[in-house]
Amino acid sequence: QVQLVQSETEVKKPGASVSISCKTSGYTFSNYTIHWVRQAPGQRLEWLGWINAGSGGTVYSPHFRGRVFFRRDTSASTAYMELGSLRSEDTAVYYCARRHYDVLTGYYLDYWGQGTPVTVSS
Amino acid sequence: DIQMTQSPSSLSASVGDTVTIACRASQYINIHLNWYQQKPGKAPNLLIYAASNLQVGVSSRFSGSGSGSDFTLSISDLQPEDVAVYYCQQSHSTPCTFGGGTKVEIK
Question: Is A47 on the interface with B (CB under 8 A)?
Answer without folding.
Answer: yes
